[in-house]
Amino acid sequence: MSFKTPSELAQGACSVAVSKSRWSVVQMLILGIFAGAYIGFAGFLYTVVTHDLVGFAGVGFTKFLGGAVFSVGLMLVVIAGGELFTGNCMMPMGILSGCVTTGQVLRNWLWVYLANFLGSVLVAFLVFHSGLAAGPVGAHALKIAAGKMSLTFKEALVRGILCNWLVVLAVWMSMAATDVVGKIFAIFFPIMAFVASGFEHSIANMYFMFLGMLLKGSEKVAGLANIPEGKLAYVGWEGFFHNLIPVTIGNVIGGVFFVAILYFVVFKDKLKEN
After folding, report:
1. Quick one: fold of 6-268?
2. Residue 3 pairs with which residues in a beta bridge?
């Protein structure tokens, strides 16, 4: 066949976990910054494309198109090269298979998560100072940030679970493809689905919320956004972590349990043979 089977993907996931566990700190920081930046680029593209589209195309198509363009972020990570915390939630399959240790996985997660944060806020900082978010695009970005920061803990947690179930499946499916076009299609549909559905991605949220915090200080942007004071008050560091903590926990649950653990249960006999 021109693609790998699910059992072959499980075997490949173990090999990937081993490779990722061997990165040096410098390699993880560089590749993690790249991945955070690529997700930030996708976030800005999403905002530009969707900021005024509802009035012309309706809510549903706007969500679809926003998800479609956002998928470029994971395409850059997988094809160009990057270390993305949410995608690396597949690594515990290597723990279960005995090819990596829990310490190695946690080491990767720690440095990659930190680097993703640096890359995402770097792009948010550059976008803010580019002047490209000084008008209606910025107002839309501020609305997005306020909406994320005002979610309840439970809402953020559950949306995080649903999100990374799909994101890790996108990475999983991309491993099945043997050519670049196949990888693009494997990534496109799950990422489009999670964004259009309104699920929550921790690394994307780092970008969206940090940009929102920068834009909140602009009277012009805040005026165009016309967000109620009660909701705008969430935009700040407290709101940042109010969202990021449950979303990150949810992302770990979604990727580790619903993909890594359950696929290991299905294919553990095949993995033992190897």
Report:
1. Glycerol uptake facilitator protein (1.20.1080)
2. 177
What pLDDT digit, counting tens, does each position of 214-272 carry? 999 999 999 999 999 999 999 999 999 999 999 999 999 999 999 999 999 999 988 76
Q: 224 is written with which tokens?
A: 């165009």
DSSP assignment of the chain: --B--HHHHHHHHHHHHHHHHT--HHHHHHHHHHHHHHHHHHHHHHHHHHTTTHHHHHHHHHHHHHHHHHTHHHHIIIII----TTGGGGTHHHHHHTSS-HHHHHHHHHHHHHHHHHHHHHHHHHHHHHTTTSSHHHHHHHHHHHHHHTS-HHHHHHHHHHHHHHHHHHHHHHTTBSSHHHHHHHHHHHHHHHHHHT---HHHHHHHHHHHHHHTT-HHHHHHHT--HHHHTT-SHHHHHHHHHHHHHHHHHHHIIIIIIHHHHHHHHHHHH-
Give the amino acid at 53: L
The two tokens of residue 248 are 């990150």
- Specify the 3-state DSSP secondary structure of 154: helix
Please provide the size of the chain in residues.
274
pTM of the model: 0.96
CA distances for 68 relative to 45, 58, 71, 171, angstroms: 10, 16, 6, 16
Following DSSP, what letter does each residue of 208-268 receive, concatenated? HHHHHHHHTT-HHHHHHHT--HHHHTT-SHHHHHHHHHHHHHHHHHHHIIIIIIHHHHHHH
CA distance 105 to 240: 26
Closest CA to 96 of 263, 252, 235, 273: 263
| Strand ranges for the chain from DSSP E | none
CA 177-262-270 angle, to 5 degrees, is: 65
